[in-house]
Design a protein that fits this description.
132 residues; alpha+beta; Arc Repressor Mutant, subunit A; 3-stranded antiparallel beta sheet; 3-stranded mixed beta sheet
């Protein structure tokens, strides 16, 4: 956690490290309520500011699925504030409701069109490997 915050030039506080650990230790994307439950006592404004800082600096990315709360997952090391691109699909498990980032080769379906595509985001539903 320390090196991620340091690389992104974000001051390391115990609270920020705790939030980052909660997100990075999860095998699936997490909601704010999940983070809140794991934190115990916290300042809600500080949590939302921390999430915003992590999003803006490319530490985490948000996942928006219709009818669901936003979820958050770790970014790749290459994500930056001005270059925050994720070329993968988000799989929502129909059994456990977890959301996973799944790498997918872009040329498997994206390059089948006459459009110039810089990035993509796909939402899928199915059964995750843990529930199979």
């Amino acid at each position: 956690m320390k090196s991620i915050l340091k690389r992104k030039n974000i001051s390391e506080t115990p609270f920020r490290k705790s939030v980052l650990e909660i997100i990075s230790d999860s095998s699936s994307a997490v909601s704010i309520s999940y983070i809140e439950n794991k934190l115990g006592e916290y300042n809600r404004v500080t949590l939302y500011r921390t999430i915003k800082t992590f999003l803006e600096t490319g530490i985490i990315h948000s996942i928006s699925i219709a009818g669901e709360d936003l979820r958050y997952a770790m970014c790749e090391d290459t994500c930056q504030q001005d270059n925050h691109i994720h070329n993968h699909l988000h799989l929502q498990c129909t059994q456990c409701n977890s959301v996973y980032c799944v790498d997918l080769p872009a040329d498997s379906f994206i390059n089948k069109s006459n459009h110039l595509i810089d990035s993509f985001e796909v939402h899928a539903k199915g059964v995750c490997e843990h529930c199979q």
